[in-house]
Structures are given as structure tokens and as C-alpha cells.
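Q: What would this chain look like folded?
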Amino acid sequence: MTASWVAGTVRAEALARRRIGAGAARALASCPTWADALTALSATPYGHDVSPTATLVQAQHGVGATLLWHLRVLAGWLPRSGADVIRLLARGFEIAGIDDQLARLAGTDTGPAYRLGALDTASRRVAEADSPAAVRECLRSSAWGDPGGTTPREISLGARLAWAGDLVARIPEASGWARTAAALLVAREVLVDGRRWPTALDRRASVVLGGGFVDAAGSPSASVAGLSALLPSGARGAFSGVDRPEDLWRAEAAWWHRLEREGFTLLRGSGFERGPITGAVAVLAADAWRVRAALEAAARRTVTGPAVMEAFDGVA
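A: My prediction, written as C-alpha cells:
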């Protein structure tokens, strides 16, 4: 084990201690006004990238930017192989950039881009693409590989499946998270949004979820129970107790709780290697998710009143 791995693991543990935790997130959600919520946020590590006059969208982006900065710092302490792990785990920020560029090409205004620095694999090129086909080509010629499909929706979905496939193949500790996230993605597309699953993405989806799951997702009789039964055993847990499409949000919340729980287990493991690094990223990501949910609750509180806390507690 090299000194860089030791230093990186120690840094990962230190960064993980910068999360604010469930209690502080709930206090943030309980703020009586949006101004109070921003003031409370400013006293946390997330406040660095959020202005006192930020909107909800801007504040949530700032929370994401703080998480990304922590990942960039962590990658800088690790040897190349460790930085590669962080780069792969951070691809969700690149997906946000892919979605934004596809939206811009369709004439929709988007917010500021995340700054990935050395964690970038294709974002800078994607941001210069002048068509969905060019976005696809940028991905195809990069570490992402061809997402499959030609429409913006297919490219966006394909990128997520490509990320999940790489996580399964390269970071065993994250394989269960990746499979479950991919299953939730497909289930939401088919059962909640009522869209036909694009056959152009069958190969990508089958690599992560298996051909049986993909075939069932393409059937008019697809159901939550039917799909979850076809998942690998390590990916079914989040669907426990979820029988109706309108309750898939519970499975999505359960996924985040699992990510945090298993992240702590990895972080507390012995040794200076990939496991604790992956665990640190997981617990930091889960904390950022909870803070973003708390901000949304605080913003909605002025409209819905204290009842919004019931919804927050049901998720976070």
C-alpha cells in the first residue's frame, strides 16, 4: 500500500466528517422562512457556494458543487488508480452536464455547469456539441462509450446505464447501488411516466439488469412486483413493500438510505484501499441529497406550512 493511498484514506475520513447529518438537515427543513434556511445553510460546509439571495435551484446547485469540490480534493490525495475510482463515482455530475447540454440544444435555458476539473472525462466536449448526435459522438469516443439511441431521451438514459455498467464492472462495492439505481430508472420510465422502453437501449440495460428484466420492462403488463422479482438478489431490497408505481419514490428514498448505511460500513472498514474511499463518497453524496431535500422542504414551507415536514420525514 502506497503512502498516497494512506493519505487519501485519511483525507476521506476527514471529509466524511464534514457532512451535517440527519438532525441538522431536519433543522434546516424546519426553518420558518427561506431566508432563515439560507442563513442556516451558510453556517455549514455547504454555505461556501450559496449566496444569501439564492433561489432554491441555486442553493441546491451550491450543495452539489460543495460535494463535487470534496470529491476533487479527495482525488488529489490519491494515486492515479484511486483518482480513477473517484472520477467514475463522480460521473453523476457529468450526466447533469449532458442533460443540460441536450436541454440547451432544445432551446431551454439551464443553470451554471459543475466544474469537474481533473474529474472530467467528456463534459468539456459535450458542452461544445451542436446537436444530440454530436453529444452522442462525444460520449462514444470517450471513456463513457456509446450510450445507444439517437434522441435526447435515449442519450440521457443510455448515459445513466453506461455509468451503472461501469460501476458494476469496475467497483464491486458499488455494484448493488448501481443495479438498483438502474432498475429504479427503468421502472420510473415505464411505470410512472408511461413511456415505452427504447429498444435501442436493451443491450445497455441487459448488461446491468439482465435480459429478463429488460424484456419484462418492455411488456404492456409490466408491474413493480414483476420487475423487482427479476432483479439480482442484491438489487431487490429497495423495492421491499413497494407494490404500486406511485410508491416508487419510497424505493428511491430507500436507495439513498442504503447508500448511506453501506457507505458507513465501507468507510469504517480496515485498510487503506478502495473500500473506505468508496464509502466516503457514498456518505457524502447521501448527506448532500438529504440537504437538497431539506432546502426544498424549507422553500415549500412558505406555501404548505408545517405539513411539509411530514413529507420530508417520509423521505429523509
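The CA atoms of residues 26 and 131 lie 42 Å apart.
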